[in-house]
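## retry 2 of 3
previous attempt timed out at serialization; input unchanged, resubmitting
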Amino acid sequence: MSNQKLEFDDGLFVFETVMRVRNTEIDGAQHVTLEALTALLCEARLRFLYAKGIQEVNADHQGLIVDELHLSIGSRVRAREELLFEVGVEPLYDNGGNLLIKITRMHTGEVVAKARQHFVNYDFRLNKVTGLDSTIKEALYPHLFRL
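## retry succeeded, writing output
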């Protein structure tokens, strides 16, 4: 397996949320498990989509699904630590894109992990990948702010 570094431009992050590691998410060595970290990434993604007004499955039976995950863990996490999840979007293409997630310790700012989640728009009725509709593209496209 290749050792690819995940490098992100901090200007791409448009959403933040804080979560505390629960006792049920740790292993015998008192560190968060890989499965629990993946679940926390999923929760951060869903909070971001909810904030953007994007439903998991819309009225047309379409929704965004993650089909690829790249995760780089830089530091172990213990129970009850508060983590800051920053979420961003790389430029979209016709039927999907990439969500970027950076996890840092809330009080020290130390980077704990970085992830890139590749997603596609999936039609659950037709069982196939379809193009992103204009409302999803508009909600996810990073807008530039001018002062």
